[in-house]
Design goal:
Elements: H1 2-10, H2 15-34, E1 38-39, E2 46-47, H3 59-62, E3 85-91, H4 94-105, H5 109-121, E4 134-137, H6 142-148, H7 152-164, E5 173-175, H8 187-194, E6 198-200, H9 205-208, E7 212-220, H10 224-235, E8 240-248, H11 256-263
Helix pairs in contact: 4-5, 5-7
């Protein structure tokens, strides 16, 4: 007993010991990868996903998410004139809200890629989405895209398009600068604020003619932005426009804080 205590008391970590420890950690990670394990985009932990069910998030990070009822009518209360269908995966609350904010405002692109996998996995719950001929993402204002370095809607739209086996048409829509921030505006004011903001990029009109378009974004609140995008796509000749978002903010629980986040989308 005394010998063990003496050994512990005299134990000192040396540089070569640290190197061996680091090597051991690296070997375990490599072995985990060879065994089919994945690394969680949120917490960084390693785990072994079920075959064909790698969502990029470990069970501890995706299980607390609040998922939408696939049978819920998300068009209720939202004056959508140009969208024929609206579906979402998550409620914009709890961990889901935290992950989306980390993606958008802290540059956690890997979380966005994982959320895109999660959203694509939910495609099968909505047969209506399989009528799509192509996928289009909601654009950011040019200065916002430059500042952020990426468009979060692109991270979500690409895996959704792969799941549906249809092309993802990047940069179809362009977004000008809104005249006023959306924060604090009423539903009617928000709709007026985005009228005429979205434009079709040159060369896409022939490709969209007669197409059933699936519009992808990260969050829907009142739906004014999605509906304005849909109006532009239909003016370009699209036969119909559906929307599939990662999360929806309840109209009854919408706060000025949520509106402010949406204005920074």
């Amino acid at each position: 007993m005394r010998q063990t205590e003496a050994c512990r008391a005299g134990f000192r970590r040396t540089p070569w010991m640290d190197a061996v420890l680091r090597l051991g950690v690296g070997v375990r990670q490599v072995m985990a990868g060879l065994a089919g394990a994945g690394r969680c985009a949120v917490c960084g932990s390693w785990w072994a996903p079920e075959p064909g069910a790698d969502l990029g998030l470990c069970p501890s990070c995706w299980q607390p998410l609040v998922f939408c009822d696939p049978n819920a009518d998300l068009t209720r209360g939202r004056a959508l004139r140009h969208l024929s269908f609206l579906a979402a995966v998550l409620a914009y609350e709890g961990p889901g809200r935290e992950y989306i904010q980390a993606m958008k405002y802290r540059g956690r692109v890997q979380i966005g890629e994982a959320l895109g996998l999660l959203q694509s996995a939910w495609v099968d719950l909505y047969p209506e989405l399989w009528r799509s001929d192509c996928v289009v993402s909601v654009p950011l204002a040019p200065w916002r895209a430059w500042e952020r370095g990426f468009n979060q809607a692109d991270l979500l739209a690409a895996p959704v398009a792969r799941r549906l086996r249809v092309p993802f048409l990047a940069d179809v829509l362009r977004r000008g600068q809104e005249t006023e921030r959306q924060a604090g505006l009423s539903r009617w004011e928000r709709r007026r604020n985005v009228e005429g903001v979205f434009h079709l990029s040159p060369g896409w009109q022939a490709r969209l003619a007669g197409a059933e378009v699936l519009l992808v974004d990260d969050i829907v609140t009142t739906g004014a932005t999605l509906d304005a995008c849909a109006a532009t796509l239909k003016q370009a000749g699209a036969a119909g426009v559906r929307a599939f978002v990662l999360a929806h903010a309840s109209l009854r629980r919408t706060t000025v804080g949520t509106e402010a986040e949406q204005s920074r989308s």
